[in-house]
Design a protein that fits this description.
The chain is built from nine helices and no strands. By secondary structure, it is mainly α. The protein has one domain. Helix 1 crosses helix 8.
Length: 224
């Protein structure tokens, strides 16, 4: 049986319509995310909540404000520990890069190249870490699985990363009103990207907005 090929287009299409159909509650979640992330140490807690509620929406489950706070209780500590370890690794990479740039030897140049490659790999792994935290308790399993997803779906991951960068830039440049949906959209998009990647193993995929033309994408809402 031929394995399913993840599609960045499908991830974007499905996340767009899921946000479109749940725009009201997702704006509320987005605003709560901003308020609850006002302190740097609370950002991981807020991430746990926003990914939890967007996943429930994807699963077509009733989602209320209570689910946001339930997400903090269920996944807040796990997000904090995982992202604490992840950020520590990124910081160590940056320190090593600064260290190697002070030497002109061939060995330092080689080590610098490998460290930069390791850093870029770590940044791309972030595409899957947040969703994996919802289903995997072990920090090392989260990091290992995110690396496997990246290594086996490199082109797809690069497309998702570029789309995410472009969309985030567009949202930030508009300031309002699109900024008020930014974080909810990002969480939804990454959840949909995760589903695309795991479909080749589970066989389960989102078909909510399957085979829709470009014009219909923005003019005619799809049937659920």
């Amino acid at each position: 049986m031929e394995l399913y090929t993840p599609s960045a287009k499908n991830a974007l299409r499905n996340s767009f319509w899921l946000v479109f159909d749940n725009i009201g509650i997702l704006i509320v979640f987005n605003l709560i995310f901003l308020l609850s992330s006002s302190l740097l140490i609370t950002i991981p807690l807020s991430c746990g909540a926003i990914f939890h509620v967007t996943q429930k929406i994807i699963e077509n489950k009733e989602t209320t404000l209570a689910d946001y706070y339930r997400g903090i209780l269920l996944y807040g500590i796990r997000f904090s520990l995982t992202y604490g370890a992840y950020i520590l690794i990124i910081i160590l990479c940056l320190i090593n890069i600064m260290f190697y740039t002070h030497f002109d030897s061939l060995l330092s140049l080689v080590l610098l190249g490998w460290t930069i490659l390791f850093l870029l790999t770590g940044l791309l792994m972030a595409l899957y870490i947040s969703t994996l935290i919802l289903t995997t308790k072990n920090i090392f399993s989260v990091l290992k699985t995110s690396f496997v997803f990246l290594a086996t779906n490199l082109i797809f991951s690069l497309k998702i990363f570029l789309l995410l960068a472009l969309l985030t830039t567009a949202f930030l440049l508009t300031l309002a009103p699109f900024f008020f949906i930014l974080f909810s959209f990002v969480a939804m998009f990454l959840n949909c990207a995760y589903i695309e990647v795991t479909t080749r193993y589970t066989g389960k995929k989102l078909t909510y907005a399957h085979n829709r033309s470009f014009v219909k994408e923005f003019l005619v809402p799809p049937r659920a």
